[in-house]
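Hello forum,

I keep getting stuck at the same step: I have a sequence, I want structure tokens, and every attempt I make locally crashes halfway through. Rather than fight my setup again tonight, could one of you with a working pipeline run this one for me? It's a single chain of 187 residues.
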Amino acid sequence: MIVAAAIWKRETAAKFQNWIDGLDPVDLPHARIMLRAEMVRDAMTDLVDAHALPDCVERTMLIDYVAALAAMFSGIMDSRYLRLRINVIEINACSKFHIDTVTARLICTYRGRATQYGNGAMGEAPGEVYDLPTGSPMILRGTSWGSTAEPGLLHRSPIEGTGETRLVLVLDPIADIEADESDRLVH
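Reply #2:
Ran it on my machine without issues. Output:
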């Protein structure tokens, strides 16, 4: 049986959540990079340094959270390389329910309301909409999974009209990298 998604419902430490929620949105780290999974910790350390996040336990927790999810997702997807996006979202970036055109995608919201999801057909809103808990990662099967069966699980950004700032991690496996492309990746 092929499933459309896997959700790890976990509670984020209150101290971490208060810290990340209290940061000025301009200080939140953001980047789009392709790299080997084992390089995520170093890349995140460089990223939080570049955004001058204070050296504290919570900063280390953010780095650890992202690095651990990257390692797990890389293993699950059997993908040595990942596309990592950490986005600061203040506008309605993805308000329509959709399925991504990827093999699979991991999404985890560290600040703000997390992703909404529900079963439905492309182009239609789901009958029931569920809210992923903030801090809980979700792996979604995309349309490029290789199965002829539609995933049927749609998702969207819940930010419309909230005025909040979200911090969202997105990981995609990179299956086919040409030799010349790997030279541009973070090793």
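Residues 59 and 154 are 32 Å apart (CA to CA). If your local run keeps crashing, start a new thread with the error log.
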